[in-house]
Fold this sequence. Notes:
By secondary structure, chain B is mainly alpha-helical. Chain B has a domain at 20-215. Helices cover 74% and strands 3% of the residues of chain B. Chain C has a domain at 26-272. Chain C has helices spanning 2-26, 32-57, 64-83, 93-97, 113-136, 142-162, 164-167, 191-213, 215-225, 227-232, 237-263, 273-286, 291-311, 316-330, 334-350, 354-375, and strands at 180-181, 184-185. The interface between A and C is large, with 48 and 53 residues.
Amino acid sequence: MKRRDLLKGVAFAGVAGATGLGGFPGIWTGRNAAWAAGSDIPVGVLFSKTGAVAVVESTLHDACMMAIEEINDNGGINGRKIRPFVEDPASDPATFADRANRLVRRDKVVSIFGSYTSSSRQAVLPVVEGQNNLYWYPTLYEGRECSRNVMYGGAVPNQQQQDYVPWLKEKFGGRFYLLGNNYVYPREENNVARKILKGIGGEVVNEEYVPMGHDSFSSIVSQLRRDKPDVIFCTLVGDSDVAFQREYHNAGLDPKTMPVASLTRSEIEVKAIGGKAAAGHFSSAPYFMGHQSAENKKFVEAYLKKYGQDQVTHFVNEAAYFQVYQFKNAVERIGSGELTPSAIRDAAVGQRFMAPQGEIEIADNLHTYLWPKIGQWQANGQAKVLVDSKSRIAPEPYWAYEGQKCTAEGLQES
Amino acid sequence: MYSWLNEIFIGLSLTSILLIIALGLAIIYGTMGVINLAHGQFVMIGAYVAWFLQSQFGIGIIVGLPLIFIAGALLGLVIERTIIQRLYRSPLDTILATWGIGIVLEQLVRGLFGSDSRYVARSEFLDGNLILAGIHMSYYRLFIIGFALFTLAVTWFLLFRTEFGTKLRAVIQNKEISECYGVSANRVYAMTFAYGAGLAAIAGALITPMVSVTPTMGTKVVVDAFLVVIVGGVGSIAGTAAAALMIGEASAWLSYLLNETTARILILLGVIVLIRFRPQGLFPNKVRR
Amino acid sequence: MNKGFSIDCIGYALFAVFVVLIIPWSANYSGYDLNVYARYLVLGMAAAAVALSWGTAGILNLGQALTFGIGSYIMAMHLKLKASGAQAGGMPDFMVWTNMEKLPWFWEPFQSVSFTLAAGILVPVAIASLIGGFMFRGRITGVFVAIITLSFMLAVQLWIISEQRFTGGQNGLTGLATLELFDWSVDVYGLAFYYMVAGCLLVVLTLGLLFLRSKAGLVLRAIKADPERTRFFGYDVSTYEIVAFAISAGIAGIAGMLYAMILGFASPTYMGLSLSLAFVIWAAVGGRESIVAATLGGIGVNMAEGRLSDLFFDQWTLILGVIFIVVVLFLPRGLFGLVMDLRIKLESHFMANPISRMNTSLDKHRSETTASQREGK
Lengths: 414, 289, 377
């Protein structure tokens, strides 16, 4: 009996030990080295390369990495190179929070560049606020947020909708069908759209939400035929936007009488949709690939050269690109002072930078002054700019909410 | 009235898509009791082959269908010979193994082609709509409905009018006795699996103009196909067709009356109740296993 | 089944040592790594839950992530309410965004810690009992159980995602406060929390082993081998199946509650098909017949994933898929089965007494035959 017990015991110890060996950090080198002061600057890069919105987010990753490489090739920041820690959160908010946690606690980054969807930003928010880190968020979003730990590089509703909705009503009529994916961004944008429409005498004919990644729109098209709105106000993202536009086109609906006016559609989605199906519809954005400026020419050329001539730049990866440069400028301003996320944030405020879209400025509420435009998609996949703004527009994330304002001290109620 | 007819048409369209996808799975399940969770990946690979043919060689979807079928069938054959054939005795293990195969296939495709959404164009002559009694019927969707019926007919013919079909039905009814009669069960299984995979690949190619072609598109379809097969009943083509019709029409109507998500939830709950009270499905084949 | 039980005891003791001493030491007793190890333990617990119903009773629950997810949501609801005290009406932020007017009634009870802890176990058990009753009273077995559990899980997951104003939708519940248990504020990156998790795991495994050792466990094994025959012996098969199913669910619920604390959020992603299948695969790798082995499987695979996915960033999922296939094809009883076979081989080699040697090989023959009968399930 004793020998048998011994053998059993040895067998199990073997298994337990082998598994335990996997846990010894020393065996697997790499990640645990602490960063010495004065050497590389660690940052996190948190864009999905797989999943429902990977079609857009992978280009954000590409633009961000291109900026980082450009800066490193030019000697880095004050002689220090940027060291990116790349994670793939797979379009899932839970994974975003998880990876952000890892970047902040294990890799000890001083900033994270990330996110396309609002859900992923909201998942990361508690992490960066709890650990007092800094999140550079390049994407347009629904506003109604005023965190001191996020640098918002994308447009908020007042920058996107303020002129767009009245223009649409004037051109096509005031009966709007609101269509979006089922999460906070489309819901908030639709809240704002409703408020604007109410003020100008427009009407919401229907409001429909589909799950993320949903790609079957035949019933929605039936509803459109039934309700006959003047404008389809569209906040679908990723695969859903592509599938919907294709279905619209297959169903033979006409953009001259029932156009799709999108807030999210960019050159990326149009490429996946196909130029023919996307032609005649509209988007409102601070940047289009065809914008004529010296910086944009340089940006587009570098991007196409690096990633292929069939790639496109768009208003979100342009922001992913310029945010890295804003980061660089802020770190330079700090000079030899201590490099912490809060210091970087404070140094970034008020900064001006010549981005591909024009000269942008970081407001003290950490949002960005941008140059919104209204563009109509052409069959070649590019947008023709119909309406351009004369000056950069100030960001007001609480524009639609009386008595609330986002300031340098955070959200102020009055 | 117009909207009723329209919903019926949409339901038929959804049915036809489900049917083509599920038919391959149903045949495999009926014959071998194998629940192939990698079936969705066969669909995905069919879609990618369609994209590949179109972007590299300019071959349209319709023209490319035979090639796509063969590609899917070959892949199915390889997988069956190497992995599936070892698992015929334990259906639960096949669920796990095929899930693993599905993951491997998805990752391989992602590694080769990236996660970008790929665009495949419809054949030009199928653009446009037929307008009948006030409803708009896309030619392409009509084509798919017709093709689904065609596939159903071909499969029926294969099963009931060819020698291979007779052997297949014999093996389904009683494997041991069939082997005593000189039927090579292994070969029948391999051919069946290949046929099922080929059908899945065709389904994938046909749906490309309507959905995004990404490496993850397979997982979305496999659960639906699974449900159709189980509801339809083991080894029954009529059952699969009936189940596809029920689920397709139910999806269309419930989405129209309520919304897409509630429709799906109700269908899942309906399937649960149906399986509980009639696990053999709608039109089961009486077989001795 | 004395041998099985003794092995489990020794293995269990070694396992306890591993969990209580070796792991914390290798993580330097605090910080991010310790939290990650706590996560592995919790996932191991979930694998054990699956193994309990699958390996012992032959019930493959493809919806285990449902009870796991419900446990995590319950804990998250309590912690979310705690974090939202300052908001209007004590409502969580997503309710404010979705323009809700007040807290729904089914959220109210979760203000209390004790209710939450009780609910985290009892709600999954109740759900499992209902579904189990629904299925097993109708003598549904095998594949159909798998499909029904899977469909039900998907239906609930869809509902949670769509009812954003009640559940936070696709985002899940984020921004949670820290748990306060009897005046102890639980720091999930600290050693005390790790020991709490380890303690839960060891207690759960102990109770599980005792259950399996009891008459009920014996009947379950009989049910797995041949349900009809067991019925003829006069046992109410469906009741035993429901009990096993419900116990698994309870264990998964506890694991879910701990997971919500570790991650700091709850999400419908963790209530889906991929996670359910992952539990099953971990149990398969470890060995579905022993809950201790299944736990080790869960811990081991996740540990390997944690290390290797950094090295093989893009290919890790591919490797995981290959592991799935290999384990199912060649190691149907998991690593545990491998170890058992090794033991038998070693024993028959080292037997001094030829009669004992013969007995051992008879044992081996017997266990192999029953094993191959079990493979039919």
